[in-house]
Fold this sequence. Notes:
This is GTP-binding protein. Belongs to the GTR/RAG GTP-binding protein family. The chain is α/β, with parallel strands linked by helices. The protein folds into 2 domains: 25-193, 3-Layer(aba) Sandwich (Rossmann fold), CATH 3.40.50; 198-325, Beta-Lactamase. It has helices at residues 7-16, 36-44, 109-126, 144-165, 183-192, 199-213, 238-257, 302-305, 308-325, and strands at residues 25-29, 62-65, 71-74, 97-104, 131-137, 172-177, 215-222, 227-231, 274-278, 283-289, 294-301. Strands 2-3-1-4-5-6 form a 6-stranded mixed sheet, sandwiched between helices. A 5-stranded antiparallel sheet has the order 8-7-11-10-9, with helices on both faces. Strand 2 and strand 3 form a beta hairpin. The longest helix is centred in the middle third of the chain and has 22 residues, at 144-165. The chain is globular, with a radius of gyration of 21 Å.
Amino acid sequence: MYQDQPEEQLQEENxxxxxxxxxxxxxxxxxxxxxxxxxxxxIFEKRDQLETVYLQPTTDIVEYTMYGGIEVYxxxxxxxxxxxxxxxxxxxxxxxxxxxxxxxxxxxIQKSLHYLYSSMDLIFSIQxxxxxxxxxxxxxxxxxxxxxxxxxxxxxxxxxxxxYEGYDNSLVQFYLTSIYNKSIYEAMSRVSHKLVPNVSxxxxxxxxxxxxxxxxxxxxxxxxxxxxxxxxSFPFASQYHQFCCSTIGLMEDLTTMYSEYQLxxxxxxxxxxxxxxxxxxxxxxxxxxxxxxxxxxxMVRDNISKNLSLLEFNAKKxxxxxxxxxxxxxSSTKD
Length: 335
């Protein structure tokens, strides 16, 4: 009975049944003009970066929904140290809630840290095991040496505060970000993909795919947001991720020009699309369309990419496994 329903509709119905306390959520917090609203507009609204430069400070809570049912909330910027005490965070905090706290590295860092500390104190009093992801933002205007100095200094201050308060340091992760390069997509992907239901199973499938096909790296990307929702268990490489994001941009351009990446007229049958893009340094990118919105993007050495038929065969098997885990229509549906 599920074959007559679009894949995205099935997925939304699946996640609507999740209890609010366990529903995956990402809360973006930070001082006014730290750049958190710009981050979300660039990723989820596909706004040009320059369009977000002169945004007014956020005064209301803004909600986005990611692929996989993850809810993302842009909370108003903190003007005073205890502003978040006036928001009922109990409505948002649950066992699957993570915080993204955005710090403008070109602004008053000391004041931003005071805001962060007060937010930590409040949130840990409600949910002691909440994960904090600190985005050290707007690093594009800084030299590499200054970026690293600021990163080390901020980490030292935050860990010192957490040690003093008796908080668990493992609850904090740091990312250097900018909306003017791929770093913001990498950071948001690494934050959000941990919240995807059954992510460990998806990771195992992609890891097995890498072993059997001799791939260096495999990602399952959401084409709309350019965020990966799963990857293999091999060490993360930022350069690979940048190549993959650029590939999605290329695919978007091709999709605009041609109609090959569309569903047929009935809206039910999807024809898989396969492509190989050759890079320098004896590497290629292999892509395989899973459905209208999801794509496998893999880093592969040129000597392996020549055997395209084997890669395509394995990718089709992996695609069917991913659909089963993601509760998509069963494998009997035509591809």
